[in-house]
Amino acid sequence: MSTQPKSFQELIEGETPVLVDFFATWCGPCKMMQPILEDTARQLGEKVKIVKVDVDRNQLAASKFQVRGVPTLILFHKGKILWRQSGVVPAHQLVQLIQSQQVVAS
Predict the structure, then answer these.
(1) How many angstroms separate the CA atoms of 54 and 59, rounded?
(2) What is the pLDDT of residues 52-100, one digit of tens each?
(3) Where does residue 79 fall: left (phi above 0), alpha (psi -120 to 50 degrees), or beta otherwise?
(4) What single DSSP character describes residue 50?
(5) d(Cα 12, Cα 36) in Å, to the nearest integer?
(6) Residues 43, 74: contact at Cβ < 8 Å?
(7) CB–CB of 98/46 below 8 Å?
(8) What does the alpha-carbon distance between residue 40 and residue 26 come to, in Å, rounded to a whole number?
(9) What 3-state class would DSSP assign to 83?
């Protein structure tokens, strides 16, 4: 039996914090976020899930979370938004921010 979440909603309501990157394929700054997110994932490992959401393909999700510009990063834990920011965020700042939310063991 699989324990994989069946939906985006189930994923963001889980015990593990989820960092969602709302992006667009045509967006230059979004492309800059890819290696930053990879670095963040390497540093935090299983402590956080990182999910990319293409706003052009998932307009409903973008609309639900009022994403006006890309990239927009939103950190969820147990269904609540802990933090959100638009624009490029450096990896060290992201790691520090996620750890400071006290939902991730350092």
Answers:
(1) 8
(2) 999 999 999 999 999 999 999 999 999 999 999 999 999 999 999 999 8
(3) left
(4) E
(5) 21
(6) no
(7) no
(8) 23
(9) strand
Which listed residue (5, 13, 16, 27) is catalytic? 27
Cα→Cα distances 13→20, 38, 61, 101, Å: 13, 23, 15, 16
Cα 19 to Cα 94: distance, rounded to the nearest angstrom: 10
Considering the candidates 20, 30, 48, 55, report the single residue annotated as catalytic: 30
Distance of CA 30 to the CA centre of its chain: 13
pTM above 0.85? yes
| Catalytic residue flag (residue 6) | no
* Composition of the chain by helix, strand, coil, percent to 5: 40, 25, 40
Per-residue tokens: 75: 């950190």
CB 49 within 8 A of CB 98: no
Please name which of 85, 91, 97 lies closest in space to residue 34, comparing C-alpha atoms.
91
Active site annotation includes 12: no
